[in-house]
Design brief:
With 57 residues, the protein is α+β, with helices and mostly antiparallel strands. The chain has one domain. Helix content is 14%, strand content 33%. It is built from one helix and four strands; from the N terminus they run αββββ. A four-stranded antiparallel sheet has the order 1-2-3-4, with no helix packed on it. A hairpin with a 5-residue loop joins β1 and β2. It is elongated. The protein starts with a helix and ends in a 5-residue tail after the last strand. The protein binds zinc ion. The site of zinc ion has 6 residues, from loops.
Length: 57
């Protein structure tokens, strides 16, 4: 399965697509991995936006 080039550009721009399992911790923060580039993502309940955790290389 090959992702379209524009998704690659979107990832570089910080617009990732969470895929697979989404884990919700005790604080209501959601954790997932980008289905395209595989980076770690988090989403605060109050922000309603995914951002890159940046703890994995
Ligand atoms: Zn990504």
């Amino acid at each position: 399965m090959t992702a379209p080039p524009d998704q690659d550009a979107a990832c570089r721009a910080g617009r990732h697509v969470p895929g697979g399992r989404i884990v919700v911790d005790q604080h209501g923060t959601r954790h997932a991995h980008c289905r395209h580039c595989g980076c770690a993502l988090s989403r605060l309940q109050s922000i309603r936006r995914w951002y890159r955790s940046g703890q994995l290389g």
